[in-house]
Amino acid sequence: MKLTTSLFDEGMPPPCPHDFNAARYCVAASAAAHPNKIALIVVSDPHSLEPAERWTFAQLDDGIRRTAAGLVHMGLKPGERVMLRLGNYSSFPLIFFATIAAGGIAVPSSSQLSDREAHYIAQDCGARFLCTSRDLMLNDLADGCTQLLDDDIRDLMACEDSLDYAPSHGDDPAYIVYTSGATSQPKGVLHAHRAVWARQMMFDGWYGLRQDDRMLHAGAFNWTYTLGAGLMDPWTKGAGTVIYNGPKDPGVWPRLAKKHNATLFAAVPSLYRQMLKYADHIAEGFATLRHGLTAGEKLPETVRDNWIKATGKPLYEALGMSECSTYASSSPTVAVKPGFTGRPQIGRRVAILVNDEGSTDTVAIGEPGLLALHKDDPGLMLRYWNKDAQTTAAFRKDWFLTGDTAALDEDGYLEYLGRADDLMNALGYRVSPQEVEEALSHHPDIQECACAEIQVREDIRVIAAFIIPQGDAKPTAKSLSDHASARLAVYKIPKEFVFVKALPHTVTGKVQRAKLAALYQDLKRG
Q1: pLDDT on residue 8
Q2: Exposed, middle or buried by CB within 10 Å (0-12, 13-18, 19+), for 338?
Q3: Which of 40, 85, 122, 521 could form a Cys-Cys staple with 55, CB 3.0–4.6 A?
């Protein structure tokens, strides 16, 4: 029996309007309808948990349009890129949305990136402006890039003028997200304004989002999971958001939820696991919660079960990627089915293709195959920035290949079966093994190295580096970790260093990363 695709039309949002600015869509209507309602609370103090910043919808709308005017006064032209390298402060979303409001292209990046990584993104996207803090400033930027530091950003946000939202179209570029790919360098995922409109499919398909909700999100602003689920979607609906930027002790999250009456909580599965192990008074802390949300990595059933036992609250999982955000999930209206992520959201078109190059045939119900999304999904990226060949290679005719393997059952539930390529997962971030290997390869004590994601416990997977030392050298895990930390973001640094005499190779000399996990288990058994 064949399952061609999973296609749900009933209840899907109408097509994105031709004239559409994503920043206006996220903020302006809520500012008009609920000007004095709290849209954003930023908390820094882990003890008092009092707001360091509090923004109403009217203040957000005004701040975004003033910041947009400031960018235009400084010379930003439509289509030019503004890179953000900032922490979890209001300046991040204000500049992000202001860039889009002004007709520019926002490029969020992590404050955890090394200078080397940040330099690459600034150069690759051709940033016109780099907005960052003094402690994260970059040297030797391209001549056409102006760096805006703390005082500059404050002046930018305090512009006396106010700009109306640019008359953008739904298919115009709005923002670029950099993600790991099959090379040693990240690639920019270019999204149109319509990608934000398409997020309506998640409102019922995952969150059960309501206007009276208050979202507590555990992620950083640069991550699309936080930008989307933490800001874009609640603000579009008129709901509020709480973001925390203090020390990340697992016990702080239930206390934050209680202090600020959170009704939704979003995090990666590993944080739920840490809270269950180390946090106190979880049931009391999450008493106002309707349910939890999780994405970024596969949710172990034991974590879901233990969360429900501890809090009495449901936990809904979603599967997504930078190229399309989430597209399959469980929700208050889609019952959880153990072992399955959920169902494709209403309006999504999903196919499980046979693993034959060039074929668009689908597999039988229950059979594993390549997970693909239809090219007409309004949330799908426009293209990879400056990478036409990789854009072409990501499609099979009308289908975008996600790089994941999966199966669909007779009820339309999707079972996630892992990556079809070598990409690793670190705290919900995709990490290229080639990128980590390239950084480690410059260490003088390494002859050869290979990286893979390995399972160290039933519910814990980490990045491991398998090292062949150079000659008689005896590198230590600390020396290798210190070396990597100067070149990679913290979440990309291997948690395990395994010293070996040989690595598995194909007959043509290519490292067989798929065999590294088995090699690790063999070494553990002695």
Answers
A1: 52
A2: exposed
A3: 40
CATH 3.40.50.12780 range(s) for the chain read 17-347
How big is the chain, counted in residues? 526
* Spatial contact of 235 and 26, defined as CB atoms under 8 Å apart: yes
Residue 10, pLDDT score: 52
Q: 424-525: CATH homologous superfamily?
A: ANL, C-terminal domain (3.30.300.30)
Query: What are the strands, taking DSSP E only, across 169-302?
Result: 173-179, 187-192, 214-217, 240-244, 264-267, 291-294
The helix (run of H) or strand (run of E) holding residue 239 is: none
Which of 42-51, 104-113, 179-188, 306-315 is predicted with the least confidence, judged by mean pLDDT? 179-188
Q: How confident is the model at residue 263 (pLDDT cuts 50, 70, 90)?
A: very high
Check if CATH label 3.40.50.620 holds for domain 17-347. no
Residues with Cβ within 8 Å of 161's Cβ and at least 6 positions away in sequence, in order, are: 66, 69, 70, 73
Asked whether the predicted pLDDT for residue 89 surpasses 80, the reply is: yes
